[in-house]
Amino acid sequence: MECHVYYEGDDDPKKCTARRLERFDRAILHRSMRAVPYGVVLNPHAERALSPTDADDALDTLVALDCSWESAEQAAFSMSGVHRALPFLVAANPVNYGRPFRLTTVEALAAALRIFGHAEAAADLLEPFRWGETFLTLNEEPLRRYAGCADSSEVVAVQDEYLADEDT
Questions:
Q1: pTM: predicted TM-score of the whole model, two decimal places
Q2: DSSP line for the chain
């Protein structure tokens, strides 16, 4: 499955996971939204959660937006494709370690690959990052459970269990 990233360039270049993915030939960066191919767009504002059934809609293409969390408003995700939100996961990157839903671009892409059942591809994508394996370890159980869901509603039900645990 190919990983594509619409790159806005507003993050610190030294911490930018999308640029590192490009450097290691693990993702294709696009600086124009029109150049981004159709696929499953990882969008935190999407109305439906990503599930294994979305792999069919991906057409072997996953798309992420690389931008600062401060500019990650809904309008920034106006790419064509099937928009899906990632369920509850915890960041392992040094900037947002332990914070739910604050994933880097590589964490988001790897999570989607893992939910689609591509565990080796997810690990390969994270390999250039010291903390990459930590992301998979921290989220091992939820990623396994999300990957076993039949559809988006089941993913949301599993997510609700984790969110209930966070509140207690």
A1: 0.93
A2: -EEEEEE---S-TTT-HHHHHHHTTS-EEESSGGGSPSSEEE-TT-SSB--GGGGGTTTTEEEEEE--GGG--GGGG--SSEEEB--S-B--STTTTT-BT---HHHHHHHHHHHTT-HHHHHHHHTTSTTHHHHHHHTHHHHHHHHT-SSHHHHHHHHHHHHHHHH-
86 is annotated as contributing to ligand binding: yes
Q: Is 113 annotated as a binding residue?
A: no
> What average pLDDT score do residues 103-110 get?
96
Task: Compute the average pLDDT of residues 59-75.
Answer: 76
134 is in an annotated binding site: no
| Per-domain boundaries in the chain | 2-167
Say if residue 65 carries a ligand binding annotation: yes
